[in-house]
Amino acid sequence: AVNWTGAITLQSGESITRGAYLGEGEYTLHVDADGPVTVTVQTQTQEDTVMNRKQTVYQGAADGATFAAPADNRSVTFIVTADASVHIDAIRYDGAASGQLRLNYTLLPEAIAGRIQTLRSEGNVVQRLVYVKDAMQLFRRSPVVGLGMGAFENGIYNVQSYHYETKYVHNHYVQTMVDTGVIGLALWLGLLAANIVAVVRLWRKGKEEPQPMAAALGALLVFMMIHAAVEVDFSNGYFLCFGYGAFAVVNLTCGGLTPLPFGGERCRKWIVRGEGLAILAFTVLLSMNLVAQGLAQQRTFDKLAQAADLDPYEWADYKLSYVYSAADNTERTEDMTARMERYMADLEALRSNSVPQYLAEVYFKLGNLSKGFAMLEKYVDYTPSNPDTWAESFQTAMDYDDGSDTFRQGVLALKERLDQWNRENLGTITLPEDIAAYVAGGAQE
Questions:
Q1: What is the tens place of the pLDDT at every residue in 298-324?
Q2: Burial of 243 by CB count in 10 Å (0-12 exposed, 13-18 middle, 19+ buried)?
Q3: What are the residues whose beta carbons fall under 8 Å from the beta carbon of 294, sequence distance 6 or more?
């Protein structure tokens, strides 16, 4: 289907996208057609590919068009259009390299034909490889047990070499490694393996008596395994009921064939008991979480402290609320101050993409400039690729600027961090005009 191509007829206003992997150099197009054809030529370097962008180097008549591909060029995209119906026999290029564009794909829809032209440098493909590469940097921080659920979304700005936004790796195997480490990956692969073995055993039973579900369940598992490698399905709550429903169908159909050679029925019973204990433990922890929510809604310092000490999940939110509110309380007691300082020490130890900014505000309110700027630096160091992080950090500095030399030095140190990031990474982070003017004023002084 990919290789069966030929001439093409374009109707008025119709366009096709074609591509070629061309290196640096000058090129000229030659068109064999019974009418005028126009073309837009776009080049893509390695950096462009990573940043998911293209550079337009030519627009106009296709026949005789000349264009230059820059150094480190990965591919060239040709968007061919016609103002009137035209039959195109061939579009050739020569120069630094020579060849011919594929035109009509006899066996493929145009949507697919256009997508496969420069697949190796196609933005979505390359971008997902970047997701995986950056995710593996996070995985190496805690390879055994992982960094916790949502760790990829929380930490991705910390390892990026340029700014992009995504909640998921688009590969559930790698996502599992980041969140739950090799232990979680082993459990996930074990789930898949147990289902595969059960379905294979069901299929083998088909030699003795018909098993009409075997082929369907096998295809279902293959589909789920492939999709888990390229999409975000298993990270989305609305899909999980379908995905684990599919595993339930496998279990109901051939659960008795699931491999447990090391313990038999006794092992199955202990697995059920273990699952029951896990559910009980989770029920207790969730109940503590719900009770803490009720305490926090009473909006008193004592209740916030109780919620922070009780909740195993959202304790950091309650401690941060306590600290942020207590900093503005003019009637703060010695006990409240001691608890606030203890909570601030706990919060400082977190690897968070938001907590340091709020702590910076608290320290500025308390007049501790060195700690305030230390928190802002921790904030930008944890999410340095996100332009909003830098804007919010400088905005916080603007809001609490006391005009002192110490404060100005803190702003200049923060600006140097931004300049260093721009020098060492792809793309350039720019600040909003009002913030840029403030930072420039600080630099001049």
A1: 989 999 999 999 999 899 999 999 999
A2: middle
A3: none
Query: Of 110, 219, 382, 324, whose CA–CA distance to 374 is shortest?
Result: 382
Locate 301 and state its tokens: 């310092």
Q: 3-state class of 104 per DSSP? A: strand
Q: Answer yes or no: are the C-beta atoms of 418 and 389 closer than 8 Å.
A: no
What whole-number distance in Å separates Cα of residue 260 and Cα of residue 207?
23
Cα distance between residue 19 and residue 77, in whole Å = 4
Asked whether residue 208 carries a pLDDT value surpassing 80, the answer given is: no
Using the CB atoms, write b or e for 392-428: b if 16+ within 10 Å.
bbbbbbeebeeeeeebbebbeebbebbeebeeeeebe
User: Taking the CA atoms of the chain, what radius of gyration do you get in angstroms?
Assistant: 30
Whole-angstrom distance, CA of residue 373 vs CA of residue 164: 26
Indicate the SS3 state at residue 415.
helix
Give the predicted TM-score (pTM) of the model. 0.75
In this structure, how many other beta carbons lie within 10 angstroms of the beta carbon of residue 92? Answer: 13
| SS3 call for 346 | helix
Q: Shortest CA distance to 9 belongs to which of 39, 34, 41, 29?
A: 34
What is the C-alpha separation between 304 and 355, in angstroms, rounded? 17
Residue 44 CA to its chain's centroid (Å): 23
Question: Do 82 and 37 meet the contact criterion of CB atoms below 8 Å apart?
Answer: yes
